[in-house]
């Protein structure tokens, strides 16, 4: 009796096949289902399933209170709230829900995942549900509304946003002989200040991570927002970012990482890694949305937190501060899409309450005018800066970003010149764009 | 009656025998149903679906179109895929060798009855019961440029400048390998300890009487006696290393410059981040073929040596 035989069978059937089964689970359905806009608004009881992204921890009373008020104002409507821990899980869970034909009615999305669902016609354009879509659009800050417009159609109701700001350590500024009351106003000043801080204090000048958090800066912000290079050609079919200005700007980044005045965490870290380095006082500046202040306050000693100050994002050649946005989309499989739209619009009116817990930018123009947003520097920078979403609203945005990030890393680590990295990235973008989905 | 049975024609006798076999083993069949159902539903069916998807452009959201072997042709010129195969190879070889070899002497050491053996066994097994994500996040903080490891090495005077464990392409993959080995070490230690527990004590006594020291005993008694466990460990470590995902996801995200991205991570990224399930499935099929081929080859070689 050979004892290896059973082991081999187990491996051949179980172990090795489980590898593939685990890697790519089969969703099993080659199509979706649809509810239809006219199925909405019936007289019977209506149940809405509402997905948010990572709002359970710390914001449950706000969400539940807002839902309760909606249910009280809309007898017969009940809302089931489901919170998804992060946006990557949101897209995979929504994908599974659409494949299974049991979707939520209102889904919290970001402009990073919206284009995939818009391109596959699995979410409603707002104009199919709203009798006067122009009137709906007019209620929202244009920059935030435009982030959901793809191919001329709006696919999302803005929920709340964020704008990149400069958050800096005043003590390190003083130690370097810089005036904390005059933070860098543009990128030349940022680079100069960073060099000086590194020379005088030994810590790095700033962190600029390359991940997908738009209000933390990412390759699209560095190219389009800071260097003013367009990401795509006017027809949207080819990459256009490999300009001399972008090459020169990336060269500064590569020099900064090499010489230590840009924190090396920038190369491979995420947004929270950048925040951690600031909290440890190992760097003097980060470019994040003011929402990070809540995390900094919770994770630093009070005397450290007092050193941090918020200022407007340094002005780049792109002209507007880089932004991030949470949106609501209505899946086509929703059984009550019109009620879902009504709920999504209602929920976007509640963000003042959210903003009072963490500094975020409300999507509604009227809410942004609330005196509360003039009450502190971190709320002022939200409403006083022009906001823009620099990333391409393309279904392959995740793949495009991965390609760009990889080439940026090669440049920052000195494995390629900035020009070669951007040229290679542009070639890869053109391949992805020409292949389509 | 016996004569009457002998007079039955051959097909009838065979059918009767088959029925008796089924009757005698019916409980076995019944007990196997849940396992067969689970494997069929959660392993074979998805695997076959994966194979099917690899010939389509399935994106998870819209009906798929048959594209023949286009996905496989694209893999031929996909430099990132080639890089991930190379990285998978490096991770798999390193992890398999380290996890098969390192726990062996430790298991022998513990088996000899050292003081505090339960303590050592528990401490070495502890990383296995910590959730991978939790331990990986902790390691990410320790391996940071400003992290605990660099502080410790600097304090000991072993390094002058912090090492970029996670952001240097040369170090990133080895950091991932180190964390995998740290986490899984206890599993392989237990396998070897179980093997040693069934090894007759007389063999160790005989070796001792013959004057064999610990090193000679290790190579002449322990290793031959644990050959079955070593083969088992090799196969388990090999397949697990090929599937490495969580550590890469948390520690490096496959970077920098794809230096630590393996094929499993690339498949996930392609399928679930890019929604290119057809292309991801083609990669998975290639990976499956490689794993199957190498495991079968390894087992055949191990069988021959026996």
UniProtKB/TrEMBL annotation, chain A:
UniProt cross-references to SUPFAM superfamilies, sorted A to Z: Periplasmic binding protein-like II (SSF53850)
InterPro entries reported in the protein's UniProt record: Bact_solute-bd_prot1 (IPR050490), SBP (IPR006059)
Protein name listed in UniProt: Putative chitobiose transport system substrate-binding protein
Organism: Thermocatellispora tengchongensis
Top-level taxonomy: Bacteria, Bacillati, Actinomycetota, Actinomycetes, Streptosporangiales
Pfam families, A to Z: SBP_bac_1
Domain of life: Bacteria
Coiled-coil stretches noted in the UniProt entry, renumbered to this chain: none
């Amino acid at each position: 009796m050979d004892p290896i035989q059973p082991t081999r069978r187990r491996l051949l059937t179980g172990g090795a096949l489980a590898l593939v089964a685990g890697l790519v689970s089969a969703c099993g359905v080659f199509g979706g289902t649809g509810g239809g806009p006219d199925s909405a608004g019936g007289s019977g009881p209506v149940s809405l399933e509402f997905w948010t992204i990572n709002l359970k921890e710390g914001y449950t009373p706000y969400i539940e209170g807002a839902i309760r008020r909606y249910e009280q104002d809309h007898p017969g409507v009940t809302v089931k709230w489901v919170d998804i821990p992060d946006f990557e899980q949101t897209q995979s869970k929504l994908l599974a829900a659409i494949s299974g034909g049991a979707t939520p009615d209102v889904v919290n999305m970001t402009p990073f995942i919206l284009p995939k669902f818009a391109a596959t016609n699995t979410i409603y354009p707002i104009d199919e549900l709203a009798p006067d879509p122009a009137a709906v659009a007019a209620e929202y800050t244009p920059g935030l509304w435009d982030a959901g417009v793809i191919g001329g159609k709006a696919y999302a109701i803005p929920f709340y946003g964020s704008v990149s700001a400069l958050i800096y350590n005043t003590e390190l500024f003083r130690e370097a002989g810089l005036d904390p009351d005059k933070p860098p106003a543009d990128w030349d000043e940022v680079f100069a200040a960073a060099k000086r801080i590194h020379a005088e204090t030994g810590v790095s000048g700033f962190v600029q991570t390359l991940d997908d958090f738009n209000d933390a800066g990412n390759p699209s912000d560095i190219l389009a927002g800071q260097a003013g290079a367009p990401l795509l050609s006017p027809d949207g079919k080819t990459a256009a970012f490999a300009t001399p200005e972008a090459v020169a700007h990336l060269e500064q980044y590569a020099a900064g990482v090499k010489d230590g005045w840009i924190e090396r965490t920038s190369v491979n870290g995420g947004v929270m890694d950048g925040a951690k380095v600031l909290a440890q006082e190992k760097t003097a500046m980060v470019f994040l949305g003011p929402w990070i202040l809540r995390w900094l306050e919770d994770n630093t000693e009070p005397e450290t937190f007092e050193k941090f100050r918020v200022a407007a994002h340094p002005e780049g050649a792109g002209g507007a501060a880089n932004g991030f946005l949470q949106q609501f989309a209505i899946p086509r499989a929703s059984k009550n899409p019109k009620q879902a739209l009504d709920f999504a619009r209602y929920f976007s009116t509640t963000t003042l309450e959210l903003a009072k817990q963490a500094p975020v930018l409300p999507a509604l123009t009227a809410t942004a005018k609330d005196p509360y947003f003039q009450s502190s520097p971190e709320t002022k920078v939200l409403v006083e800066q022009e906001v823009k979403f620099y990333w391409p609203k393309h279904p392959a945005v995740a793949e495009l970003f991965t390609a760009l990030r990889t080439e940026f890393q090669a440049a920052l680590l000195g494995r390629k010149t900035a020009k070669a990295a951007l040229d290679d990235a542009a070639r890869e973008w053109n391949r992805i764009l020409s292949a389509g989905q | 009656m016996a004569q009457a049975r002998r007079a039955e024609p051959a097909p009838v006798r065979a059918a009767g025998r088959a029925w008796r076999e089924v009757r005698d083993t019916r409980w076995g069949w019944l007990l196997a149903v849940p396992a067969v159902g689970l494997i069929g539903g959660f392993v074979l069916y998805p695997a076959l679906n994966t194979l099917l998807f690899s010939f389509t452009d399935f994106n998870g959201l819209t009906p798929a179109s048959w594209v023949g072997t286009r996905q496989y042709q694209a893999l031929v010129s996909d430099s990132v895929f080639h890089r991930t195969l190379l990285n998978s190879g490096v991770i798999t070889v390193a992890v398999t060798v380290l996890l098969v070899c390192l726990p062996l002497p430790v298991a022998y050491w513990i088996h000899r009855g050292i003081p505090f053996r339960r303590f050592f066994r528990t401490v070495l097994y502890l990383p296995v019961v910590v959730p991978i994500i939790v331990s990986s996040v902790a390691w990410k903080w320790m391996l940071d440029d400003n992290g605990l490891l660099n502080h410790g090495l600097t304090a000991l005077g072993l390094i002058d400048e912090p090492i970029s464990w996670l952001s240097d392409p040369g170090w990133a993959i080895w950091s991932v390998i180190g964390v995998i080995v740290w986490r899984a070490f206890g599993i392989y230690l237990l396998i070897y300890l179980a093997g040693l527990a069934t090894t007759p004590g007389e063999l160790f006594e005989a070796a001792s009487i013959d004057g064999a020291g610990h090193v000679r005993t290790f190579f002449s008694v322990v290793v031959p006696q644990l050959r079955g466990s070593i083969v088992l460990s090799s196969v388990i470590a090999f397949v697990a290393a090929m599937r490495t995902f969580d550590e890469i996801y948390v520690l490096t995200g496959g970077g920098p410059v794809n230096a630590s991205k393996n094929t499993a991570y690339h498949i996930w990224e392609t399928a679930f981040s890019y929604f290119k399930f057809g292309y991801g499935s083609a990669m998975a099929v290639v990976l499956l073929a490689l794993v199957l081929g190498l495991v079968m080859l390894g087992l055949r070689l191990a069988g021959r040596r026996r």
